[in-house]
Amino acid sequence: MKKTKIISAQFAKRLGAYSHGYTIEIGDTKLIFTTGQIALDKNGNILYPNDAEKQSEFIYESLQQILKSSGATLDDVVKTTIFLTNINDFSKVSPIRNKYFQYSEPVSTLVEVSKLVKPGCCVEIEVIAVKQT
Q1: Which CATH number fits domain 2-132: 3.30.1330.40, 3.30.420.10, 3.40.50.970, 3.30.565.10?
Q2: From residue 24, how far is each of 36, 56, 72, 111 by CA, in Å?
Q3: Confidence at residue 67, expressed as pLDDT on a 0 to 100 scale
Q4: How far apart are CA 4 and CA 92, in angstroms?
Q5: Average pLDDT along the chain, 133 residues, taken 10 residues at a time
Q6: Are 100 and 29 contacting, i.e. CB atoms less than 8 angstroms apart?
Q7: In the chain, where the domains are located
Q8: In this predicted model, what pLDDT tens digit does every residue of 27-41 receive, in sequence order?
């Protein structure tokens, strides 16, 4: 088994002692776990405050880049978790989610939370992907 941190300057500045993700190789299979992504620029500033649609779009694009850095794509995602600060944003986020996962159709969980790590963040998304090597 081989475990590798996913850290890159191209992603948002980390807010603490964590990685953007981990890749775990077991035999010919690679498991990719991402940390929850929020809509931050590279300097850690909130993008599109309180706009669930724009934040979701940005987050899925970021997740694509994180997965790409590990040789995977959103089509390899098997599990996703979405955190919303307002459950009424589901109708805005769901079509964006469906666009990015139209082929993989991963197992999904969506929950409403009272707050996310930074004011103005209203969406956080994490994924788990599996890639045959």
Answers
A1: 3.30.1330.40
A2: 17, 26, 13, 27
A3: 94
A4: 34
A5: 85 76 95 95 92 98 93 97 98 97 95 96 98 90
A6: no
A7: 2-132
A8: 999 999 999 999 999
C-alpha closest to that of 57 among 112, 7, 122: 122
- Written as six digits, the tokens of 50 are 């309180």
Distance set, CA 66 to CA 25, 38, 61 (Å)? 16, 13, 9
Length of the chain as a residue count: 133
Distance (Å, rounded) from C-alpha 46 to C-alpha 97?
A: 20
Q: Give per-residue pLDDT as tens, 110-131.
A: 999 999 999 999 999 999 999 9
C-alpha separations of 56 from 27, 60, 83, 85, 131 in Å: 34, 6, 11, 13, 24
Rounded to whole angstroms, the Cα distance separating 126 from 1 reads 23
Phi, psi of 41 (to 5 degrees): -80, 180
